[in-house]
Amino acid sequence: MKQADLINSSKNWKEDYEHENGNYMCHCRLCKQSFLGHKRRVMCKECTERQVIGTLIEGEHPDEIYPRAATWLEERRNWMREVAILKQEIENLKNQS
Q1: CB 42 within 8 A of CB 26
Q2: Using CA atoms, how far apart are residues 25 and 34, in angstroms rounded to an integer?
Q3: What is the pTM of this model?
Q4: CB neighbour list of residue 19: distance below 8 Å, 6 or more residues apart
């Protein structure tokens, strides 16, 4: 992708530009395209809007368009559960002392 194309891409989070960490080149986990935005973003604006709004494209369900999305979300949920368990174990150990 040419630099001019990247700068003008609809995948970019233009509202992030004014922030200190808002002008990083990121890589979307769903469409695998580059975009500009906050350094911690994992999805481009287009993919995020499709997920949030639930827009159907050409009659297809979003999970058919982005089959990795459901898997990624489930992995994230599992990770968050593991973090909660570890936090509780640490708290229990502190209380035993």
Answers
A1: yes
A2: 7
A3: 0.51
A4: 38
Rounded CA gap, 95 and 87, in Å?
Answer: 12
State how far the Cα of 55 lies from the Cα of 62, in Å rounded to an integer.
7
**Burial status of residue 65 (CB atoms within 10 A of its CB: 0-12, 13-18, 19 or more):** middle
pLDDT in tens, 22-72: 889 999 998 999 999 999 999 999 988 877 665 555 555 555 555 666 676
Please report where in the chains the tokens 């630099």 appear, as a residue: 3
